[in-house]
Amino acid sequence: MKLPIYIYGHPVLRRATEPVTSDYPELHKLIDDMFETMYAADGCGLAAPQIGLSIRLVVIDTDILKDQFPECAGRKMALINPEIEILDGEECTRSEGCLSLPGLSENVGRVEHIRLRWLDENFQPHEEEMSGFLSRCVQHECDHLDGKVYMDHVSATRKLLIRNKLRNLMEGKFNCDYKVKTAARRR
User: Fold this and answer.
1) Any catalytic annotation for residue 141?
2) What are the distances in angstroms from CA 70 to CA 67, 107, 115, 140, 155?
3) Which end of the chain is more exposed for a tag (fewer CB within 10 A), N or C?
4) What residue segments make up the domains of the chain, in order of their start?
């Protein structure tokens, strides 16, 4: 089932998230619905707060990016209660977009190398070092679990320059091809 994606300005995107437990109701269905929602919106990652749930759950499928970023090949994952450890403090700046900020993209600096610990959909533990664009995708989605969006990494000057676009998102004045939920009452 395709779920609405919550748009920048909605309070759920800023809330603290709770760990997911093995007795979470219909977790496998939720994960399937998140993948379906992400694919329908042409995304490569989706975090639970983006569908209105304040839980520590992320889905990622970066395989579509494999030609440009080989580390992304075959990477379809559900990440339950992910934890990131920074392994390389040097930042690389690349353009990022987000399903919760449709029509926008900005340059964001992120570290290139992380260690990720998570549980899969069967609550089996995993640990892996990740680099490059895969690392960036994981960091981007895990930011959502901490009440952050990529715009929080953008300079104050740049935010000032795009303030009207951000206001339009918060007011529901934008177009996109997927179901959304905004903080604005008119949509």
Assistant:
1) yes
2) 6, 21, 18, 19, 30
3) N
4) 5-181
Parallel, antiparallel or unpaired: strands 180-181 and 45-47: unpaired
Q: Which mean pLDDT values do the consecutive 10-residue runs of the chain (187 residues) have?
A: 97 97 97 98 98 98 97 97 90 96 97 97 97 97 98 95 96 95 71
Which residue of the set 71, 112, 141, 171 is catalytic? 141
pLDDT at 187: 40
> Regarding beta strands 45-47 and 5-6, do their DSSP bridges make them parallel or antiparallel, or are they unpaired?
unpaired
Q: Which is nearest to 119 in space by CA: 33, 31, 37, 11?
A: 31
Please report the pLDDT score of residue 185 as a whole number. Answer: 63
Q: How far is residue 5 from each of residues 53, 75, 122, 132, 137, measured CA to CA in Å?
A: 11, 22, 25, 26, 18
For residue 48 the two structure tokens come to 């639970």
What is the predicted pLDDT for the residue at 104?
97
Instruction: State the pLDDT at residue 89.
Output: 74
Give CATH for domain 5-181: 3.90.45.10
130 is written with which tokens? 């990740």
Tokens of 135: 């690392």
